Description:
Layout: E1 12-13, H1 14-27, H2 31-39, H3 67-76, E2 81-82, H4 84-89, H5 92-96, H6 100-105, E3 108-109, E4 113-116, E5 121-124, H7 127-139, E6 147-151, H8 157-170, H9 184-194, E7 211-215, H10 219-222, H11 224-235, E8 239-243, H12 249-252, E9 253-255, E10 269-270, E11 274-276, H13 283-299, H14 312-318, E12 319-320, H15 322-330, H16 334-341, H17 345-357, E13 361-365, H18 367-370, H19 375-388, E14 398-401, H20 408-413, H21 422-432, H22 444-453, E15 458-462, H23 466-469, H24 473-481, E16 485-490, H25 495-498, E17 503-508, E18 517-518, E19 521-522, E20 525-528, E21 533-537, H26 551-562, H27 570-575, H28 577-587, H29 594-597, E22 604-605, E23 622-623, E24 639-644, E25 649-650, E26 653-654, E27 670-673, H30 675-680, E28 688-694, E29 700-710, E30 717-721, E31 746-752
Parallel strand pairs: 1-9, 2-3, 6-15, 7-8, 7-13, 8-11, 12-23, 13-14, 15-16, 16-17, 24-30, 27-29
Antiparallel strand pairs: 4-5, 4-17, 9-10, 18-19, 20-21, 21-22, 24-31, 25-26, 27-30, 28-29, 28-31
One ligand MGD is lined by residues 104, 152-154, 178, 181-182, 367, 371, 404-405, 462-466, 469, 489-492, 494, 509, 511-512, 551, 643, 651-653, 722, 725-726, 729, 743.
Amino acid sequence: MSQKSEKSKPAAGGWGSVKAxxxxxxxxxxxxxxxxxxxxxxxxxxxxxxGCAWPDPKHTSSFEFCENGVKAVAxxxxxxxxxxxxxAKHTVSELRQKTDHxxxxxxxxxxxxxYNPETDHYEPVTWDRLFDEIGAAxxxxxxxxxxxxxxxxxxxxxxxxxxxxxxxxxxxxNLPDCSNMCHESSGLALKETxxxxxxxxxxxxxxxxxxxxxFGQNPGTNxxxxxxxxxxxxxxxxxxxxxxxxRERGLEKFANPKDPRDMMPGGGTTISxxxxxxxxxxxxxxxxxLMKAMIEWDDAGGHGANAYILDHDFIRDHTDxxxxxxxxxxxxxxxxxxxxxxxxxxxxREAASVYCDASRVICTWAMxxxxxxxxxxxxxxxxNLLLLxxxxxxxxxxxxxxxxxxxxxxxxxxGITEKPDQEFLNRLAQxxxxxxxxxxxxxTVGTIEAMARGDVKIFFAMGGNFAAATPDTAxxxxxxxxxxxxxxxxxxxxxxxxxxxxxxxxxPCLGRTELDVQAAGAQAVTVEDSMSMVHxxxxxxxxxxxHLLSEPMIVARLALASLExxxxxxxxxxxxxxxxxxxxxxxIEGFAAFNQRIREPGxxxxxxxxxxxxxxxxxxxxxxxxxxxxESRLSQDTLTLMTVRAHDQYNTTVYGLNDRYRGxxxxxxxxxxxxxxxxxxxxxxxxWVDLHSTDQKGQTRQAKRFKIVPYDIPEGCAAAYFxxxxxxxxxxxxxxxxxxxxxxxxxxTLLLSET
Length: 755
Ligand SMILES: Nc1nc2c(c(=O)[nH]1)N[C@H]1C(S)=C(S)[C@@H](COP(=O)(O)OP(=O)(O)OC[C@H]3O[C@@H](n4cnc5c(=O)[nH]c(N)nc54)[C@H](O)[C@@H]3O)O[C@H]1N2
Ligand SMILES: Nc1nc2c(c(=O)[nH]1)N[C@H]1C(S)=C(S)[C@@H](COP(=O)(O)OP(=O)(O)OC[C@H]3O[C@@H](n4cnc5c(=O)[nH]c(N)nc54)[C@H](O)[C@@H]3O)O[C@H]1N2
Ligand SMILES: [Mo]
């Protein structure tokens, strides 16, 4: 498992991708049908890929090859089924012993199911009975705030809008979502600095950027179609500068399977022109280093032949807080920057010089920045950097948080948030004749804590896998099992169905790839990608079972069963999604004439105020934010562990046991370590260790049996996969402000496992 030399390593993509794709289709039993299904992914008339939120080239029908998109589609379109017979064969206690990989490999859920505590089996139940029972339990609560309604980011705009409407009509803002664990830090950071929580660039900007800076992101695995944009940019000479503790293969070299030259031996395009392996959590310091160099050069009248360092006109006209930032940077020590970032002054000056030589720069980032204690302040250093040279609101430049789930951004736009703004609630009140609750609801961490205290008694999930995706596994599982009732709208069997409340239900639903026929005929849904493009998605496969309901229909029937009286015609919405879109058009800014506009191929752009240099902030300007460099207080024997995704997984969905680009095959319980850290601890390759984390209060948590893989990672840093390591993250360890669990910053010590 040791690493190959740079030259002998194949590029990301290439034949390896083609082979992996074919294998997935065979494993899921869909070789013939698979091909037709795949050709419909991301097509004007087809469905939106349930993989990532990276946008598609506008108005084209070219098929962009994406290995991990294929896996996501194949996994949903599988011919395997989890039937009542399957549940009759296995008790829930038995299934709990199985791996996440086993559970989801069993196939698509086919029937609504209810847990029977006497037999410890899930048993089939009619939809009528299921809704009656959940409705009765919701109505029996002391207050609506005793229920929490989770959403994962695959839910369509239509289902999400209806869901939040139901939850608010029911009377709570307890709408935790996967975003709380994901890009919440980005939304909060950007709102304060730019006055919008969303990225400011579109896909076209990638064709015009002179440089692209990538922080804490692994697109080769998680946003493979982004590599097509990066490859194009690299080929036309744009600089690509990556900051990542490890050398991710997709950011080094990419071979596009559609290009015969790339598929020749040794073929492929170099992606990153500069690669900086900084320390985990070192980005805030590194960004300050870049900016300090710039301030120094500006003070000195330029750098080399470049006299244009800061865009003083832009700073004067559009920003607030520059003087404080400049003062802070002048007074920050290079030694402190080097220590905290793990990069040298020279390296940081080099990055700054690439930045200043470019007239148009995009900065992208993902979980490597958002899941840290100082995530919000770190992301604000990115906007500082962009603002210093007016890289905002002009072609080829701007901020690009790369979202995860395919509609996580759309769900927020539709009102899935525990902190709705009052103006949105006013519109709901006016348009739907209801009194939405005005107090803030519970986020993901808040929901776990409230369940543990017994304050939340019903947990309902629209998609996702809450038990496995959240931190502090043992604590969270106990919290979930204290609930009076847990219910999950799902396509696949997962751990959350097995860690259940007193009463438990599984509500199987249609997936993106499937035909959704309602009273008014075949329905399309819509989604919003990471760059604010909204477009339609319609499936064409026959449903996995005749018993599946669509997500909007599930919400409608839940509303009918739970609300004492409601003037909303829920079934009318679920029978014809155009009716939902009409109401979205009335209620949410940017969606006027929604039904007409999504019928245009490629959909429409929602726009972005900061992208138009309009600053909807408290100061009316774009804000510079000054933040101190966090100092690490870890003891000598402690390492900082980041939890990352392997190439063969989609969050808690484990497709297979390989992580091809990192050279790991056939297993997931591995820990990547620097050789010096191994030597210092007397550890060697292939040994098994247990990981221990100790929280602020001295409580320890452990995750057992991880095999050591020596790796090119900075000293003091380590990496392992999630969700196996989630149990190490204390529930109360989260980012300041955004409360995103610190999944990329877990202090751990290692102990040899017992054999
Ligand atoms: N195939 C596939 N696609 C996916 C997903 C999936 O699981 N599988 N998940 C989807 C979701 S929900 C999301 S949010 C995205 C996630 O997409 P990513 O954010 O790319 O996912 P991670 O694996 O968490 O990778 C984080 C990257 O940040 C780096 N990193 C960790 N800590 C630091 C740090 O302190 N500083 C810097 N600079 N880098 C750091 C890691 O080395 C790694 O390369 O992908 C989405 N797309
Ligand atoms: N340690 C650690 N923890 C993390 C992270 C990390 O990097 N490290 N990343 C975090 C991030 S970024 C995220 S977004 C969360 C993800 O958290 P979630 O979104 O809750 O988890 P997923 O694994 O994406 O959910 C998978 C389940 O979704 C269901 N599903 C799939 N498609 C559909 C559909 O169309 N409809 C419905 N109703 N259900 C469907 C299937 O039943 C499947 O089992 O995890 C977070 N947790
Ligand atoms: Mo995510």
